[in-house]
Amino acid sequence: MKELDDKLTSLKATVKTDVDNCSRLKHELTRLNDSVNDIVDNRKEELTFIASKKCLEKLRQSETYVKKNSVQVESSLNVQDCQ
Fold first, then answer.
1. Tens digits of residue pLDDT in 31-73
2. What is the pLDDT of residue 3?
3. How much is the CA Rg of the chain, to the nearest whole Å?
4. Residue 71 and residue 74: Cα distance in Å, rounded?
5. What top-level branch of life does the organism fall under (predicted)?
C-alpha cells in the first residue's frame, strides 16, 4: 500500500508540474499574441517580423513539451495497467 501511495504522490507532483508548465506556456503565448496584435495595429513591420519569429519559437517549444509529456503519461499509464 505504501508503494502505491508513493507512486500516487509522485504522479500528483508530476501532474502539478505539467499543469504549471502548460499554464506558463499559455500565458507566454497569450502575451506574445497581444504584443503582435499591438505591433500590427501600429504598422511596425520590423517589430511584427521579430514578434512573429518569437511566437513561432514559443509555439515550437509548446508543441515539443506537449509531445514529450504525452508520451510519458501514456508510458506511465501502460506500466500501471500491466501491474
1. 888 887 888 777 777 877 887 788 888 888 888 888 887 655 5
2. 85
3. 19
4. 5
5. Eukaryota
Range list of H helices, the chain: 2-41, 45-82
Alpha-carbon torsion, ordered 25, 14, 63, 79, to 10 deg: -170
Phi, psi values for residue 51, rounded to 5°: -65, -40
> For residues 26 and 18, is the Cβ–Cβ distance under 8 A?
no
Give the Cα separation of 2 and 12 in Å (integer). 15
CB-based contacts of 66: which residues, under 8 Å, 6+ apart? Answer: 22
CB 69 within 8 A of CB 18: yes
The residue written with cell numbers 500565458 in the block is 27
